[in-house]
Amino acid sequence: MNAIRTRLEHDLKATMARLGPLGRAVARLPGAAEDNTAFADEVDTIQADASREIGLASRERLVERVHRLSTALERLKAGEYGLCVECAEQIAAARLRAVPEVPTCVRCQDQLERYGPRPERERAYSSLATSA
Known about the structure:
It contains five helices and no strands. By secondary structure, it is mainly alpha-helical. Helix 1 packs antiparallel against helix 2. 8% of the residues are buried.
């Protein structure tokens, strides 16, 4: 368990380190809305917008990973790490080695990707979103 905690903490720190500079770089991209400089040429604006969108998407993925890693550390502390949050079965060790923050087993992940959350889980997710 100590090795798992160490890896999760290391991955969390590394992801946080990547997140910081990326957020600042996205904010500094030229061609912001209402830019009246010479840079605001139509093609340049399109390229800047595309770069900004890619940066924002990358930032969003990193924020999601930080959340998953933090949740995995909380589950480790609670003694629930390695158990699928959907079916409570053990998650395969190979899956946890590949993606240590994964919260679901392969079968449940496949079901989520095909059909979305189960109705009872969907209600729980939506109540969490409205209470936040």
